Amino acid sequence: MTTTVPRVTRPIPSPSTEVRPAARGEAVPATHTQTERLVRGRHVHQVNNNIALGLRFDGRLDVPLLERSLHLLAERHETLRTVFPEVDEEAGEEQVMLLLPARQRDLPVIEAPDVPEEDRLSAVLALLAEHSNQPFDLAAGPLFRPVLGRVHEELHVLSLTTDHIVFDAWSARIMINDLLNLYAAALGDDVPALPELPVQFPDFALWQHGHLTGTQLDRQLGYWRKQLDGITPIPASGLTDPDAPAGADPGVSRTTETLGSELGTAIEEFARQERTTEAVVVSAALKAAMWDLRRHGLDDTEAGDVATFGSLANRTRPEIEHMVGYVATPATFRTRFTARTSFRHLVHLESQTLFNAMRHQRIPFSLITRELAPEQYGVRFEEAGKVPVYLNFDMDMVEDEREPLLSPTGLEVRPVGIPMPEVPRGGLRIIGYRRREGTALELRYRHDLYGRDWATRFLRSVRTFLERGVAEADLTLEELA
């Protein structure tokens, strides 16, 4: 349905890198990333679009107080109250966001089903996942959906589901910390007051439209035009499994390789010596393993032109550090090397790849694809079959045992996973975890494209390049393989 959109505030172009509070009308232009989703996938529901965070509360939970704290949370962060009305694109109307007034909403409570005590938590988590997987109406909202599951009187699970269009991974920790702080303060606990937010997400959206113009846009785009010359922004991995199960339904399976504390320590020490990060060292070994598989069907130059896909936080300004919103942007990490490249040199090349990508992360990926590869603009938000088979590597090693969350009086609070299904996009995804027993790598793979044996061998190849590369860093990749 087409609606009449209120007058849109247009940003004043500014060369300033600082995000400042902006004068606003009723409507603010959606960011470039949001616009890509709205234009190509507004009515396509993918579970990837729904971000579900889980908090486990052990102890006596004051549910009405939690409900009020959630209201204060939505008051504090405007992005949790934004919607995206339908527009008439053929008439030239641009995609915009509108801010809903803060309204007190009841917190739905799901009771545990009548099952044995030991099964009640998993049953509640399954019900919360079913609720979290329901599509959002981007035009009507709300795009923030909290639901409480009651396992019993002293065990609750809170599910906080948002649509990805207003939320990114960086925002998760902010939102959880702010909610627990608001609850503890209302309970009378002695906790620091939350700092004032210098800017809100609509201010960031206006800044982005005003900042990414003229020479600033040309400079950012010029880097990516050179970096992506000869490949597409969503890069094909070039990895295939000739023994993949025939006729299997699309879906995601997982396999994990635990590196152990000894190798984990060696990787950390090597990273310090080379003045880089553990994630860069792992990424170098990952690309070496990709090269080793690719070189059997390609010449050395082609096999060593390896690109992975990932995400950058894009939190380049201190004023947006504590702001909830969709600021992150996907990025392509391309590194070129040969069989004669030493592992040490590959690590340096990979470090340079990441450094340069971070220097040019202010331009959203949506602008890069729109300008350099229009055929890929929006495909991530369309049906999964349209997306190239790529490898996604989470450059930030995920902390599996993070700092403990704030626990208000009478409660122990821990994160808990909401068991959401996963859309099989891309084909391959590697996530790094730091655990007490050492670093672990998890490979999520489309089991209609790759078999378990292939996935296991691939992860072990990454491990081998790490073990030998860290121990004998000046050997060439050909010698290490």
Automatic annotation (TrEMBL):
List cellular component terms (GO).
cytosol; enterobactin synthetase complex
Gene3D superfamilies (UniProt xref): Chloramphenicol acetyltransferase-like domain (3.30.559.10), Nonribosomal peptide synthetase, condensation domain (3.30.559.30)
> Which Pfam families does the record match to this protein?
Condensation (PF00668)
Here the segments flagged for biased composition (Low complexity) are 1-17
Q: Name one GO molecular function term.
A: 2,3-dihydroxybenzoate-serine ligase activity
Tree of life domain: Bacteria
Q: Where is this region: Disordered?
A: 1-29
Q: What is this protein called?
A: Condensation domain-containing protein
Protein species of origin: Streptomyces nitrosporeus
Q: Upper taxonomic classification of the species?
A: Bacteria, Bacillati, Actinomycetota, Actinomycetes, Kitasatosporales
